[in-house]
Amino acid sequence: MYRVSAFAVSFLVVSCWSAMAAAQPSISSLTPAVLPPGKTTEVTIHGGKLERPLQIWISFPAEVELIAPANEEEAKKVDAVRCKITPAAGTSVGIAGIALGNKSGSSGIHFFVIDDLPPLLDKGDNHSAEKAQLVTFPAGVTGTIDGSHRDYYAFEAVKGQRVAVEVVASRLGSTMDPVVRLLDGQGNELAMADDNEGIGADCRFSRILEQEGRYTVEVADNKFQGGLRYHLRVGDFPIVTAPFPLGAQRGATVKLGFLGQDQGEVESLELTVPSDLPSERLAVGARFPGGSSSGMAVIAIDSLAEQVEAEPNDDREQGTEVTFPGAVSGGLLEQGDRDHFSFNATKGQVLNFRVLSRSLGSAAYLQLRVLNGEGGQVATTSVSDAAELSLRYTIPDDGKYSLLVDDLLRRGGPEFVYRVAVTQGNSFNLTLKNDKATVNKFVVGKGNGAFAFPITVGRVGYEGPITISLEPALEGVQIWNGVIAEKAKEARPIVVIPQGLEEGDLRMLRVVGTATVDGVEQRVLMRSEAWLRTTLPSMLYPPAWYDGLLTMATSAPVEPFYDFKAPSENITFARQVGQATWPLTLERKHKDFKAGMNVFFQELPEGFSASIKADKDTYTVTLNGPADTAAGDLSFRIACFGEFNGKGQTIFRDVPVKVVDPISVTVTPAGALAVGEKQKIKIEVVRAAGSEAQDVTLSWTKLPAGVSGDETITIAKDKSEVEVELAAAADAVVAVFEELTVQAKTTYAGKEVTGVSQAVKLEVKQP
């Protein structure tokens, strides 16, 4: 691992996404648009720029095989490719995603449905009840709404048959605001559904039919928009809000029931949660006994032990006994319902309460209150615009406490289920910055590519550093700005790709933050839910597998759009001074590249550090090190990152450093010095490069007994030597003096420095 010193330098991101996106592959649709779980389906992917070789990514465990072109004509097509997809056995119904990558970049995520209903296509000429498209019950229909027109689908049913109807649109990223109605043979409305508090603009209902005959489902868009896709589900699936309990531990096997409109007869489900599941949600399906189709639901996943409420617990004295840290699942099944949970806590214990409801499909908007042993309220959630509230409380005394849970508006019913996750102590969280300039899809050039992304740091009592890594790990990857500084609330890591990635490589990455908090290592995944909801406003909650996901595709090497010019000679590092300064000049190789560059320092010698200061296109580097560094040759590496047209580019340069004395001096006598006489002495100085020459002041440090010279001698800044005289008195000691030395003083880089000559011999003799 490189030891890196990093400095962000007036970095301006130039956003040219539209031009970049146009050059990358894209997905417009799939045929078929729905995949059944556990079966192999041949799928045609329609889009643009689909040049081979291609890599395919799927959001769920599956076998994927790209089908070779059948002929030369198909091989030339760039608007469609065929593949075989086999979802793993046990894959649940729900929203899935697919992406493609080639040497031009990557497509965006295309959302589709995993469904156990037989798939059908909207024929497009069904805009009246009289022209309703006849479908065989049950069915999953892929449709497109046509502005003010409505779509009609008819099916045959028997008396007493239960029918469930659901429209999936906003959950696919569509801006359609669907309304669905069930009509009998005479056109009378039997049921209607619009927005659902748990699933947003999408809608669903179930109905037991009272007569045998033909029934019609009408699908419309409240906004009368055109060209928007939807998926209509008509089957025998239950309408459920969420599984119960609503959460499970990673690696655990749990038995789930279901809550919601049709909760009574739904089959229980045994689920084993993968221990390495990267997301905090998992799709699960709900069925009636003997049913052929499944209702969609989502369960929360984390490391907490799950506990469930035990009714009655409306009063504090009846509170369900629980242990925190841990999680509790419950339901406010009647209007005005309130649930109590009783727990023991110790003085100084810090508990963090986090509500999960809306993100799991519930209609509940919960408030939490902590009560002491006497029933007095000691803490409560503060109302905000957040869909799910949280609370942090430090226990003042040992004893018994209660958690009171109810809906803020005192509502209740089968849709009002919840989970409260309670952790202990300090922590932190990482989120992709919710900003219009933020992206989660990157193209990197082979060999010199990199990408940067902005992180917002949430600190809950922890102010220390956080180390960033990627999952799955990429061998040889470098992460610059990879340690978030103490107390920092924002960061911008830069991922420098390894040399081994080839053109067309497609990688889906997650960002992991690691820190030792209160003596325990915490590992936190970066989330992007807030940014995704801004980017995909039609989605109430984006699919859990998409939360925090970054897409990276490797393209051909990026043509250099910048460079930097460094001094052509070795950098001089003067001992005593302990510092060297020199400029780097940014060179713009593309006329439209207007941004700056980020400069980093790698492989610095032990004890050395570096910093940089930018002034337009001039970057002044300052190298600091020990003043007593041994003279000799050293080196380090300068690494730079720039970004243009959505692509990041790196440059690496090794910088040789010569460690020298800032001033050196030599003394050369002309010959022996006779008693009572004078003799010339030549003194030479050598000033180190890297600083403007200054005057040098010389002084004798050791002279023979009876020998004298000028107390101070000056060598002008434009000179490097001087001749002086030494005089021997009549009583000077006759001997060979072996320690004749002189000291030189001057300034180097604004700092006073000294040098002492090596000792030389001076013979004092009789005349």
- DSSP summary: helix tally: 3
Low-confidence stretches: 1-21
Derived from helix and strand composition plus strand pairing, the structural class reads mainly beta
Q: What is the straight-line distance between the termini?
A: 71 Å
What is the total tally of β strands? Answer: 66
What would the average pLDDT be, to the nearest integer?
92
Main beta sheet: strand number and arrangement?
A: 14 strands, mixed
Helix content: under 10%
Task: Write up what this structure looks like.
The model is unreliable at 1-21 (pLDDT under 50). A hairpin with a 2-residue loop joins strand 53 (609-615) and strand 54 (618-624). Helices cover 2% and strands 51% of the residues. Strands 1, 38, 39, 41, 42, 43, 45, 46, 47, 48, 50, 52, 55 and 56 form a 14-stranded mixed beta sheet that branches. The chain starts with a strand and ends with a strand. The chain has 767 residues and is mostly beta strands.
Topology at a glance:
Elements: E1 4-7, H1 17-22, E2 26-31, E3 34-35, E4 41-48, E5 55-58, E6 62-66, H2 72-76, E7 80-87, E8 94-102, E9 105-106, E10 110-114, E11 119-121, E12 133-134, E13 139-146, E14 151-157, E15 162-168, E16 178-183, E17 189-193, E18 203-208, E19 213-221, E20 226-235, E21 242-244, E22 247-249, E23 253-259, E24 269-272, E25 281-286, E26 295-302, E27 306-308, E28 320-321, E29 326-331, E30 338-345, E31 350-356, E32 366-371, E33 377-380, E34 390-394, E35 399-407, E36 417-424, E37 427-432, E38 441-445, E39 449-452, E40 455-460, E41 466-471, E42 478-480, E43 483-484, E44 490-491, E45 494-496, E46 506-517, E47 520-525, H3 529-535, E48 550-555, E49 562-565, E50 571-574, E51 579-588, E52 598-602, E53 609-615, E54 618-624, E55 632-644, E56 647-660, E57 663-669, E58 673-674, E59 678-687, E60 696-702, E61 707-708, E62 713-715, E63 721-728, E64 735-748, E65 751-756, E66 760-765
Parallel strand pairs: 3-10, 11-13, 12-14, 22-26, 27-29, 28-30, 38-48, 38-56, 50-56, 58-66
Antiparallel strand pairs: 1-52, 2-4, 4-7, 5-8, 6-7, 8-9, 8-10, 13-20, 14-19, 15-18, 15-20, 16-17, 16-19, 21-23, 23-24, 25-26, 29-36, 30-35, 31-34, 31-36, 32-33, 32-35, 37-40, 39-45, 39-56, 40-44, 41-43, 41-46, 42-45, 46-47, 46-48, 49-51, 51-54, 52-55, 53-54, 55-56, 57-59, 59-63, 60-62, 60-64, ...
